[in-house]
Amino acid sequence: MSRTKVVPIPVMGRHHINAYLLLGRRPVIVDAGTPGSGRRIHEQVAAHGVDPADVSLIVITHGHIDHFGSAAELHRLTGAPVAGHVADLGPYRSGRAREPYLPTGLMGRLMARHRNLHVRVPPFEPDVVVTGETDLEDFGVSARIMPTPGHTAGSVSVLTDRGDLVAGDLVANSLFGLVRGRPANPPFHDDPLGNLASLRRMLDLDPTRLHVGHGTPLEPDRVRRWADREQRRLTRLAAAGRLPARTETGAPR
């Protein structure tokens, strides 16, 4: 089995919103970007010398519009099956993210007002429903889908044989990807402490780099230091009763 290579596919700006192409015996796409970006992703896959018809799977990391917005379109363009976690089936089947969004800071509070986050996109039914760690060898890449709940209940990451972690919105670059190499929260988390616990579990697996949905790759040691600071901050907020999180029924508490 050839080792898996991770190739970024910019969806918006150079690093603002990313999808990824995993190259092994067969190609796999991770994430489908914003609504209307399916054709752009399709063209960029071809520009890397890959026949889009050879794509074996499209993995959606979670149920936010900027990650599954073009899943139905990309499925139609490539013919590839789509994988998504069972806990985010609601957004996938309805074409809407769970609302309200729960901001992690000022950026999230500003972005939550943007109408593009509240649109309905073409829904889809995952062909591969993820319920736990899932080996992707049968799809042609040496990698595993790893459940990483917290950002949303059904968030997942993909860990390759080379130690590359395609992390979705488990962590981001600062200012929604504008400050390269600096770890930060993405604009929203349904469960900030749960997300941080998932991030720590992935860091315990000693990834070589974290490839994020918003920004450039992050170095694990720098993310570990940031996670320690974030743990202290969230613990203080939780003790003061100021840490919003979504309940199991989907409503904020």
From TrEMBL:
It holds the Pfam family Lactamase_B. InterPro entries: Metallo-B-lactamas (IPR001279), NDM-1-like (IPR050855), RibonucZ/Hydroxyglut_hydro (IPR036866). This is MBL fold metallo-hydrolase. It comes from the Bacteria. Residues 16-214 form the Metallo-beta-lactamase domain. It comes from Streptomyces roseolus.
